[in-house]
Specification:
One of its GO terms (cellular component) is kinetoplast. The chain is about 35% helix and about 15% strand. By secondary structure, the chain is α/β, with parallel strands linked by helices.
Length: about 325
């Protein structure tokens, strides 16, 4: 007897990866229209959480070649299991052909940037040389469109933008050992326990990142993971999650300033602060780790079995003003 999930998939229309072969102006108009229809959801505003606002994303995966921008449907939550299955079955190969292959062939090394909050930060990194090509993902289409309009004309094929839920993209659509570095700039703390299921950098996240990263060749090889935040409690939480993930996959902690200094932001006061719009606390705490061993078959099986149920964590103590 067919399961409910399988029968539902049979009744759903087949998803295809649509490539828009229209003029740049038409592509921009379609993207702008999608980005301006926003569904705002606020989580614990009084406790200091950032308001999460996302565009009304169409269910059909679409690639806009003039902007190197792909739009994938929402995939988070247990109720979207059919969408995830259809994307893997019908879209993964085309996505890898149009997006991943272009990104992988554009430079000697590849970096995944999760979060598109600062175009100035991305521009500075891209301007440092041609060594890296960038796959930049975010849940907010408006951020991606703004960055793509600014960066694609200057840096061309070294930039690819993806509107997607990060966990699904990392777990299911990106091939193993495809990236040299993964950077998560200024992740949202989601201070309260009620909103904690939205925190990005967790044990499961460290596991899926481990799978897509290349193993370091030496202790000084700048391959690995780096993140930074102005919220010390979040940094402590992320460190706990890194240590927990080491029960499944091998990581070695690194000094971010030594091995991954190029990925740290400018924090000068005034116009040079690349994350002034996100910064609410003084100082900056960075965390870095390198992939010190392969992702074993046993670990890969665990990674592929990770579920999409909400998982709640302890609340973070918001620093007192004073």
């Amino acid at each position: 007897m067919f399961s409910y999930s399988f029968k539902a998939r049979l009744l759903m229309p087949k998803l295809v990866f649509v490539v828009r072969h229209t003029s740049p102006d038409q592509q921009k108009e379609e993207l702008a229209e999608a980005a301006c229809h926003r569904n705002g959801t606020a989580n614990d505003i009084n406790e200091g959480d950032i308001v999460a606002s996302t565009a009304q994303i169409p269910e059909t995966p679409v690639h806009f070649p003039s902007f190197h921008l792909s739009v994938l449907p929402p995939t988070s939550g247990i109720h979207r299991s059919n969408v995830r299955a259809l994307l893997v079955e019908h879209v993964k190969d085309d996505f890898r052909h149009h997006v991943v292959n272009s990104w992988a062939q554009a430079a000697p090394r590849q970096v995944v940037i999760i979060g598109c909050q600062s175009t100035a930060y991305l521009r500075r990194l891209l301007s440092m040389g041609d060594e890296y090509s960038f796959l930049i993902m975010d849940r907010m289409l408006s951020r991606l469109l703004t960055a793509a309009e600014s960066l694609v004309p200057e840096f061309g094929p070294r930039t690819q933008f993806v509107r997607s839920d990060a966990f699904f993209l990392l777990q299911q659509l990106l091939p193993p050992s495809v990236a040299d570095t993964c950077v998560v700039p200024m992740p949202v703390p989601f201070w309260s326990e009620q909103s904690s299921h939205q925190r990005l950098v967790t044990r499961d996240f460290f596991c899926v990142i481990h799978r897509i990263l290349k193993e370091r060749e030496s202790p000084t090889d700048p391959r690995g993971f780096v993140t930074f935040t102005d919220a010390v409690p979040l940094a402590e939480f992320m460190m706990e999650q890194l240590m927990e993930s080491r029960l499944i996959v091998p990581w070695v902690r690194k000094n971010p300033a030594e091995t991954y200094g190029r990925w740290l932001p400018l924090v000068s006061e005034g116009v040079n602060d690349e994350f002034s719009a996100q910064r609410r606390l003084e100082g900056l705490t960075a965390l870095a780790a390198s992939k010190s061993g392969p992702t074993s078959p046993q670990a890969d099986a665990v990674i592929q079995s990770l579920e999409y149920k909400r998982r709640y964590y302890r609340a973070l103590s918001f620093p007192a003003e004073g």
